[in-house]
Amino acid sequence: MVGFLEGNDVEKLPRRESTMNRSRNMTAMGFTKETFPAGTHMCLIYSNENERRKIIGKFLESGIIDKEKVAYFVDMMKPEEVREWLLQMDIELPDDARFSVQVAENTYCPDGVFVPDKMLNTLRHFYDQAKEDGFTNARVSGEMSWALRGIPGSGRLMEYEALVNDVLVTHPVTAMCQYDANKFNGATILDVLKVHPMMVVHGQIVHNPYYMKPQDFLKDYKAHL
């Protein structure tokens, strides 16, 4: 965890469950035996590509098996390459609406500009469409490296990530956001931790002690812009 959490620190993190979480249906994540509430918002901060692929593959496969609507937003390779490495993991990929691979930049910035409200509405629509189509839940995972290319509006990424937490209360899409510790600087990684209630550490999903409520984070974040 790029210096934030090491070794046995993971075992010391709290695993308490809120009253709101207990009211949601629980869903499997694939790479851990524990189940978590639908609408869990977590970050995967990684430096090992093989570990990333293993975690993401299991996360996506679990959603497919549990009859969820699953979408993957790819940035570091072509969509067909994602399907190829998932197939190499012996994951059965459906050819219908249950699973899609989309180019991340086209998803987050459909008009060449990143506008948080538009992407938040995309998440809402994704969830509503999933329930309308009879899926049990909805889950997504996105490679966030698109934000490093200077796309207009990409500086608002952390604002978006904070607001996602409010959206997931009413539209519980289970979401895993991927950040490459070799590409994002330390200050950004710290902000990433502040906007994700949960994080993946050594293959475990744990409560994030750095997390701040959206309104608190945004107040502090905008004050330092």
Quaternary structure type = single chain
What characterizes the major β-sheet? 7 strands, mixed
Assigned CATH superfamily: P-loop containing nucleotide triphosphate hydrolases
Backbone shape: globular
Give structural notes:
With 225 residues, the protein is an alpha/beta fold. The protein is built from eight helices and nine strands. Helix content is 38%, strand content 20%.
List keywords for this structure.
single chain; alpha/beta; Rossmann fold; 8 helices; 9 strands; globular
What's this entry about, in short?
The chain has about 220 residues and is of the alpha/beta class. Helices cover about 40% and strands about 20% of the residues. The two termini are about 25 Å apart.
What are the SSEs and their pairings?
Elements (H helix, E strand, L loop, with lengths): L18 H4 L3 E3 L6 E3 L3 E6 L2 H17 L3 E6 L4 H10 L10 E5 H5 L7 H17 L5 E6 L13 H14 L3 E7 L5 H9 L3 E4 L2 E4 L6 H10 L2
Parallel strand pairs: 3-7, 3-8, 4-5, 4-6, 6-7
Antiparallel strand pairs: 1-2, 8-9
Helix pairs in contact: 5-6, 6-8
